[in-house]
Amino acid sequence: MKFVRNIVAKEIIDAIPSSVQLRRIFIKKQLSPLKDCEVFCGSLGVYVKIENKSINEIAENASVSANSTIAALNLLNLVRNAEFEKFYLPTSNTQVKKFGAVFIISLKANLIGYGNAKVLVAATEYRGALYYSVTVPP
Asked: Which of 77, 105, 69, 75 is nearest to 89 (CA)?
């Protein structure tokens, strides 16, 4: 597994709220400048787009823990550097209806000091690849 360094400033990490609801709002605020940004994913060899609905889904999933929040804030770094883990078919209506996923690509990286981060990318038929989610499983 590839090791990825945290690039989030200590001041921002210290500002992460303690409640899930406040972390969700915090993540949305921090990631909103990345809306419609495309980042090159080295392990897939394609550009991955970050849409507003991606940011909402990231905030929903990553707000569960402080470590997942830190992983979400390392979004660009993780997408660029995470290693391919596996392909699988969509398992939820959100993945199909909201993101138009034909299949899901799972990427993994060890975010040094915070644990193994899991990055999900939705491969779509008409838009290419969309960033979908990032978490640090407990």
From this structure: 105
